[in-house]
Amino acid sequence: MKIRKNFMEGLEQKVYIHENKKEELILIAIPDIEWSYLFTYEAEDIQKDLFQSLKRRVTEEKAEVIGSRILQWTREM
Q1: Domain parsing of the chain, residue ranges
Q2: Rounded Cα distance, 67 and 72, in Å
Q3: In terms of Cα–Cα distance, which of 37, 31, 39, 38 is closest to 15?
Q4: Is the distance from CB of 33 to CB of 58 less than 8 angstroms?
Q5: What is d(CA 34, CA 29) in angstroms, rounded to the nearest whole number?
Q6: Measured in whole angstroms, how far is the alpha carbon of residue 63 from the centre of its chain?
Q7: Which pLDDT value is given to residue 11?
Q8: How confident is the model at residue 32 (pLDDT cuts 50, 70, 90)?
Q9: Residue 65 to residue 19: CA distance in whole angstroms
Q10: pLDDT at residue number 67
Q11: Would the pLDDT of 76 be above 90?
Q12: Inter-CA distances, 11 with 8, 37, 66, Å
């Protein structure tokens, strides 16, 4: 599991990223906003799906920023 720090409006949020290579899944969780998301390696249009899920918890602007960062972090894995 990787733990990344996301800074928004001067606040630090921990973003937990777990990769299950055997089942080809990635689980993302941000406890501060009570949000988690699971996707497969094969998933299409992950950015759109992340945005839709995140905007239920945060503003659209924040959802775009967090979603982009999550995609970058998961591609590094």
Answers
A1: 2-76
A2: 9
A3: 31
A4: yes
A5: 8
A6: 10
A7: 87
A8: very high
A9: 21
A10: 95
A11: no
A12: 5, 21, 13
Pairing of strands 11-20, 25-30: antiparallel
Selection from 33, 32, 28 nearest residue 16 by Cα: 28
Q: Estimate the crossing angle of helix 60-76 against helix 46-54, to 10 degrees.
A: 140
User: What are the backbone dihedrals phi and psi of residue 38, each rounded to the nearest 5 degrees, phi first?
Assistant: -125, 135
Tell me which amino acid residue 11 is: L
pLDDT at residue 4, rounded to an integer: 97
Backbone angles phi, psi at 41, to 5 degrees: -60, -30
The model scores a pTM over 0.85:
yes
